[in-house]
Structures are given as C-alpha cells and as structure tokens.
C-alpha cells in the first residue's frame, strides 16, 4: 500500500499557522506524510481566514482550482476547509462548494482523525463546528514545527471584546487561557530541543489569565533556560498596564516591540468601534511606555482601519495626526470590510469604496515618510541581533531580528554557518530599507544581550 499524503495551505494570522502545525502533527500521527505537490495529496486542507471579505473570497477561488484536481482523479481526493471560514460558514460551505468533503471548525482540530477515518470509510461528508471550550488544551508534543529557531505556543484562545467591525469573537469563541505551568513546560521542552525564540499566541494575548496574569507569565518565560527571545501576538492596548511594561523593562528576553493597535485616532470612531479607549487614553499608554522603557531601545507598531462606517474626513485626519504624535516604527492598515453578523453592520452610513482606498493610500504614504526618518535615525548605532538565517556566499549572508523586531541583513565573513545560526551578535547599522536594516558585525564583545543587565550569555565574534 502506498503512503498517504497531505497538503495544508494556510491563510490568516499566526494562530492559524500554528493550527496548521497542530493538524500536521495529528496527520503525522495517523501515518500521513507531508507533500508540497497538489497532485500527490490524498488529503488537501485549506486553513482559512475571514477577517476581511477578500480573505474569504480567496478561499472559494482556491477551492475552484482544487475541484478540477479532484475531477481529474475521479473524486479520489479529500478536500477539507478548516479555520475561520469553516467556523463562520459551517455547512454553508457544502452548498457553495459541494465537492468539499470536510468542514473543520476552529475548535474541532482534535476530531480530525475521526473525521478523516469516516471519510475513508465512505460515511459521507463530515462537518464539525461545535464549541469545545477545552480545545486550547492541545497535547503539546503533537504540533509538527518547522526547522527554524522559532516556535509558537498557544497560551489563550478566543476574544471577549466584540469590537464592532470584527469577526474573530464569532470564529474563535470566548477567551480561554492555558494553565501557566503547561505553557512554561512546553517552552522548556522547546528550548531543550534547540529553539531560541518563542512566540506566545492568543487572539487577545495580554488578557491571558490562569491563576497568574500575563505579566507574571512573561517573567516565568524569561527564566526558561536556553531561550533568547520571547514574543507575543496579538495584544490589546487595554491590557498593556504598567506591570506588563515594567516586566518588559526588567526581563531581557522579552521582546521590546510594543504592538499597540489603535485602529483609529478619533475618539468618536473608537467609541463606534467598541475599542474601550479614547485617543487621550491611548496616548496616556504611549507616554507610560516611553517613561517606563526610557533608555531601552523599543519600537511601537499599530493596526489601523480606515473608512469605518460614518468616518468623516476630519475624523480620518485624526488618524493621520496620531501617526505623527506617536511616531510608529511600522503600521498595518486596512480599508474597512463589512463582516456578517458583526455590530457595525447596523450602521447605514458606509464610506464609499473609492474614498476608503484614497484614505488608505494617504495614511500609508504618511507613515512611509515617518518610517524613513525613524529608520534613518538608527544608522551608525549598534544593535544586537538574533541570527535566524545564514546564506553563505551572499553579500549580506546573516539575517536576524533585533529585540524590537527589526529585520537586519548583515555583512560578514561567515565561514562555518553553525557559528552563527541561532546566536546573538553585535552589529553596527550601516543602512536602511523601508522595513529592514543593513549592518556589519562589530568586533567588540557584547556585555549584555539586548543592552540589559543580568542578560544571558552571548556569542561574540
Ligand atoms: N486581536 C487583534 C486583531 C486581529 S485582526 C487586535 O485586537 O488587535 C488584525 C487586524 O485586522 C485588526 O487589528 C484590524 O486592524 C484589522 N481588521 C479586523 N477586522 C477588520 C475588518 N472588518 N475590516 C478591516 N480590517 C479589519
Ligand atoms: Fe477583534 Fe477586537 Fe477581539 Fe481584536 S480585540 S480580535 S479586533 S474583537
Ligand atoms: Fe483570520 Fe481567524 Fe486569524 S479570521 S486573522 S485566521 S483568528
């Protein structure tokens, strides 16, 4: 009997990418091998995102291509839809794409073996979009992680915020947090396997609570031997309190890029969005971060939505001026996309599509000017970089990230690539692109990784 093979295609956020690692682990335990060729896949899963309408449309157009592949094989192929489109549309997917065999909701990953088994047993199409509030307690040895130095750990799932534009609370359910001991145990095991960077995941990662709060979990993570960096995504501004920022200040392994998604710079629109802060309260967070992290290199990033229903032109300009007031190192900005079932659907005063795109362009161009100046200010300064890629023979053979999450391409005489892979090095910044830095290795030793006291030992060159 030939080996069965699977292919998983992933859209969406880091949580979806990690869910793919979980499904890959499950299929591996069932005896399936991974393939990167569509024509070899016995099971083809789309792990999907529905955050904006376009993301959802991509899924259905991809399914159209897979339908042809299935027809070529006279139906001998399992096509599955997992992730947020599956959770949101449920059995509606079978109506729109009747050749789909499997619809697997975001809380049903553990049911995958049973469902695939039933499909092999010709028991008809399989659907599971049921709520399983314990789905976040996933066995930590199962996920099949890649070969990089980075690993992801789910610490919480779901969102209770119900921002009025957002579909996530509907696709991921209510907030649930994993016991902190489980998280730390998983981190220790991964560090023991050689992973150097851990990214903690949650739809609302800093509202984590399981006998200890997020700040305390970060302190525990900072003590995991062998790790160099701990990142986390996606945070909410309301949960960045002084305790979290002081923890970042005190713990050298915790990343210093502060993602503070504002969404808008206008207090009336923020209220309509259900964001629980005004522009002034948001700025108070920014001032607090600047005060507590004084002397430590950190970056500030944000997400924005333009053209939310009822956003007047002058209210949009409040978002533009917020960019100046904060001075973000990077932003991720989107035109508002109406999502079915969300609170904002009731607003009739939508902004025309063309106007939304115009506002988006203005915002992005404005940010680029700010960003150019901020990146330029880093030239000639030192930076500590954790190397995650070594490409011998290239002009800039070392690639890595700073503690505040900037990508750096480094000139170096590499020699043995193992000397650098997964190690921290000291770099002098020599130039910039729009989102990346260029640098060269510094000869002097680094006393402290990420310029902090009590830092872990660092490899120097
Ligand atoms: N939990 C994260 C959000 C994840 S979604 C948070 O609270 O920050 C990532 C980003 O997508 C959001 O920050 C928002 O800027 C954008 N987004 C979410 N819903 C959207 C919609 N309906 N239209 C346009 N952008 C949206
Ligand atoms: Fe969506 Fe708001 Fe929850 Fe973020 S906090 S996932 S934007 S509802
Ligand atoms: Fe998309 Fe679901 Fe993540 S909608 S952004 S895949 S939580």
From TrEMBL:
<feature type="domain" description="MTTase N-terminal">
    <location>
        <begin position="4"/>
        <end position="121"/>
    </location>
</feature>
<dbReference type="Pfam" id="PF00919">
    <property type="entry name" value="UPF0004"/>
</dbReference>
<dbReference type="InterPro" id="IPR023404">
    <property type="entry name" value="rSAM_horseshoe"/>
</dbReference>
<comment type="function">
    <text>Catalyzes the methylthiolation of N6-(dimethylallyl)adenosine (i(6)A), leading to the formation of 2-methylthio-N6-(dimethylallyl)adenosine (ms(2)i(6)A) at position 37 in tRNAs that read codons beginning with uridine.</text>
</comment>
<keyword id="KW-0408">Iron</keyword>
<dbReference type="InterPro" id="IPR038135">
    <property type="entry name" value="Methylthiotransferase_N_sf"/>
</dbReference>
<dbReference type="GO" id="GO:0046872">
    <property type="term" value="F:metal ion binding"/>
</dbReference>
<dbReference type="InterPro" id="IPR020612">
    <property type="entry name" value="Methylthiotransferase_CS"/>
</dbReference>
<keyword id="KW-0411">Iron-sulfur</keyword>
<feature type="binding site">
    <location>
        <position position="49"/>
    </location>
    <ligand>
        <name>[4Fe-4S] cluster 1</name>
    </ligand>
</feature>
<feature type="binding site">
    <location>
        <position position="13"/>
    </location>
    <ligand>
        <name>[4Fe-4S] cluster 1</name>
    </ligand>
</feature>
<dbReference type="Pfam" id="PF04055">
    <property type="entry name" value="Radical_SAM"/>
</dbReference>
<comment type="subunit">
    <text>Monomer.</text>
</comment>
<dbReference type="GO" id="GO:0005829">
    <property type="term" value="C:cytosol"/>
</dbReference>
<dbReference type="InterPro" id="IPR006638">
    <property type="entry name" value="Elp3/MiaA/NifB-like_rSAM"/>
</dbReference>
<keyword id="KW-0949">S-adenosyl-L-methionine</keyword>
<dbReference type="InterPro" id="IPR058240">
    <property type="entry name" value="rSAM_sf"/>
</dbReference>
<keyword id="KW-0819">tRNA processing</keyword>
<dbReference type="InterPro" id="IPR007197">
    <property type="entry name" value="rSAM"/>
</dbReference>
<feature type="binding site">
    <location>
        <position position="166"/>
    </location>
    <ligand>
        <name>[4Fe-4S] cluster 2</name>
    </ligand>
</feature>
<dbReference type="InterPro" id="IPR006463">
    <property type="entry name" value="MiaB_methiolase"/>
</dbReference>
<feature type="binding site">
    <location>
        <position position="163"/>
    </location>
    <ligand>
        <name>[4Fe-4S] cluster 2</name>
    </ligand>
</feature>
<comment type="similarity">
    <text>Belongs to the methylthiotransferase family. MiaB subfamily.</text>
</comment>
<dbReference type="GO" id="GO:0051539">
    <property type="term" value="F:4 iron, 4 sulfur cluster binding"/>
</dbReference>
<dbReference type="InterPro" id="IPR013848">
    <property type="entry name" value="Methylthiotransferase_N"/>
</dbReference>
<feature type="binding site">
    <location>
        <position position="159"/>
    </location>
    <ligand>
        <name>[4Fe-4S] cluster 2</name>
    </ligand>
</feature>
<keyword id="KW-0479">Metal-binding</keyword>
<protein>
    <recommendedName>
        <fullName>tRNA-2-methylthio-N(6)-dimethylallyladenosine synthase</fullName>
        <ecNumber>2.8.4.3</ecNumber>
    </recommendedName>
</protein>
<keyword id="KW-0004">4Fe-4S</keyword>
<feature type="binding site">
    <location>
        <position position="84"/>
    </location>
    <ligand>
        <name>[4Fe-4S] cluster 1</name>
    </ligand>
</feature>
<dbReference type="InterPro" id="IPR005839">
    <property type="entry name" value="Methylthiotransferase"/>
</dbReference>
<keyword id="KW-0808">Transferase</keyword>
<keyword id="KW-0963">Cytoplasm</keyword>
<dbReference type="GO" id="GO:0035597">
    <property type="term" value="F:tRNA-2-methylthio-N(6)-dimethylallyladenosine(37) synthase activity"/>
</dbReference>
<feature type="domain" description="Radical SAM core">
    <location>
        <begin position="145"/>
        <end position="373"/>
    </location>
</feature>
């Amino acid at each position: 009997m030939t080996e069965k093979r699977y292919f998983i295609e992933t859209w969406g956020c880091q949580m979806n990418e990690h869910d793919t690692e979980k499904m890959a682990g499950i299929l591996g335990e069932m005896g399936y091998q991974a393939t990167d060729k569509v024509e070899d896949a016995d099971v083809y899963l789309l792990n999907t995102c529905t955050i904006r309408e376009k993301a959802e449309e991509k899924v259905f157009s991809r399914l159209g291509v897979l339908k042809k592949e299935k027809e070529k094989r006279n139906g001998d192929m399992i096509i599955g839809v997992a992730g947020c489109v599956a959770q949101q549309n449920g059995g509606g997917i079978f109506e729109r794409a009747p050749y789909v065999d499997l619809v697997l909701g975001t809380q049903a990953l553990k049911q995958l073996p049973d469902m695939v088994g039933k499909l092999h047993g010709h028991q008809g199409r399989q659907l599971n979009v049921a709520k399983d509030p314990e789905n976040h307690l996933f066995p930590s040895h199962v996920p099949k992680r890649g070969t990089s130095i980075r690993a992801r750990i789910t610490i919480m799932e779901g969102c209770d915020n119900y921002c009025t534009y957002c579909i996530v609370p509907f696709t991921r359910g209510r907030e649930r947090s994993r016991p902190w001991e489980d998280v730390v145990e998983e981190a220790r095991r991964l560090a023991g396997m050689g992973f150097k960077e851990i990214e903690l995941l949650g739809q609302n990662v800093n509202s984590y609570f399981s006998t200890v709060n997020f700040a305390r979990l970060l302190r525990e993570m900072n003590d995991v031997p062998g790790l160099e960096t701990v990142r986390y995504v996606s945070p909410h501004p309301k949960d960045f309190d002084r305790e979290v920022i002081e923890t970042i200040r005190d713990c050298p392994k915790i990343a210093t890029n502060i993602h503070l998604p504002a969404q808008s710079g206008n207090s009336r629109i923020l209220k309509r969005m259900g964001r629980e802060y005004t522009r002034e309260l948001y700025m108070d967070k920014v001032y607090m971060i600047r005060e507590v992290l004084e002397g430590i290199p950190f970056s500030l990033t944000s997400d924005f939505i333009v053209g939310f229903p009822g956003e007047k032109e002058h209210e949009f300009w409040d978002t533009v001026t917020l960019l100046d007031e904060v001075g973000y190192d990077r932003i991720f900005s989107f035109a508002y996309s109406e999502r079915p079932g969300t609170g904002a659907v009731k607003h009739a005063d939508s902004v025309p599509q063309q106007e939304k795109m115009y506002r988006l362009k203005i915002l992005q161009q404005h940010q680029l000017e700010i960003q150019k100046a901020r990146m330029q200010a880093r030239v000639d300064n030192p930076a500590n970089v954790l190397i995650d890629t070594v490409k011998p023979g290239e002009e800039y053979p070392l690639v890595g990230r700073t503690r505040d999450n900037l990508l750096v391409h480094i000139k170096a005489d590499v020699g043995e690539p193992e000397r650098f892979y997964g190690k921290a090095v000291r770099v002098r910044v020599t130039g910039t692109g729009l989102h990346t830095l260029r640098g060269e290795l510094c000869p002097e030793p680094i006393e402290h990784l990420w310029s902090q006291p009590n830092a872990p030992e660092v490899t120097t060159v």
